[in-house]
Amino acid sequence: MNANELRDKTPDELRDELVNLKKEAFNLRFQQATGQLENTARIKVVRRNVARVQTVLNQKAAAAAGNE
């Protein structure tokens, strides 16, 4: 997932994606705490994807505020 793909999505789709990513991050943290996590690099990927989605959402909000 890259920022260009995210910019093509609507804010509602981005919020849904953000919720899904946060749920995945929670599950990964839970697996790590219980010693069941096999791919520890996935945590880093999910965290960065959350940051990307939040950045694009903020950019869209700023653009919408600028247009009004």
UniProtKB/TrEMBL annotation:
Gene: rpmC
GO cellular component: a single term: cytosolic large ribosomal subunit
Pfam families hit by this protein: Ribosomal_L29 (PF00831)
Domain of life: Bacteria
Keywords: Ribonucleoprotein, Ribosomal protein
Protein name, as recorded: Large ribosomal subunit protein uL29
GO molecular function: structural constituent of ribosome
Family in the record: Belongs to the universal ribosomal protein uL29 family.
GO biological process terms held by the UniProt record: translation
